[in-house]
Amino acid sequence: MKFAVAAALASFVTPAAAQEAMVWAVETPKDADAALRYAIPDTDAQPIAFACVRGSGQVKVFAQLAREIGVKMDAGGAWVDKAGVRGPWPMSVALNSEGANATLRGQIHVDEATGGSLAIAEFSTAAPLATAFRKTGLVTLTAAGETVQPPPAPKSMVRKFLGACK
Fold first, then answer.
1. Pairing of β 48-52 and β 23-27
2. Do 128 and 122 touch, CB atoms closer than 8 A?
3. Torsion over CA of 6, 36, 50 and 145, rounded to 10 degrees?
4. What percent of the chain has a predicted confidence (pLDDT) above 90?
């Protein structure tokens, strides 16, 4: 995937943005990556986002977590955890959509904008999870003991996004 972690989810909720309502938005440009985000409009505040390279058949999911995995930077400028292990850190990421479950190998990165963490995983557009998400608009992500559960996405947006990813 072409996009960088920092560009995918730059920052989340700022005090001013916390008062605005989050909504689902979809972007499927013909010449760039497709995205489906639950966010505050015109901001980078987005607790969960999906992105794909058009036609790749693969979807990356990004979710912001409050938990701090990285505790300090080492001499080389890399984030390390309490044990001194450099990030990103491997982490299981569980996704659920109306009975379709997937536990994926993912990674946790430091989210410098919030001080929390960013969970990232990837799944296929052919997976039962994608089929259930397309039908229901429901999705829940759990990683590092935290759960992100946005309201249902409009099914038309999910279909448009997943269609671009196939």
1. unpaired
2. no
3. 90
4. 78
- What residues pair up with 108 in beta bridges, in sequence order? 89, 119
- Could you give the angle at which helices 128-136 and 155-165 cross, rounded to 10 degrees? 150
Q: What angle do CA 50, 92, 48 make, to 5 degrees?
A: 25
pLDDT in tens, 83-135: 999 999 999 999 999 989 999 999 999 988 778 999 999 999 999 999 999 99
Write the CA distances from 99 to 35, 68, 96, 133, integer angstroms. Answer: 24, 30, 7, 10
pTM of the model: 0.85
Per DSSP, what are the bridge partners of residue 52?
34
User: What is the predicted pLDDT for the residue at 5?
Assistant: 41
Structure-block tokens of residue 5: 């972690």
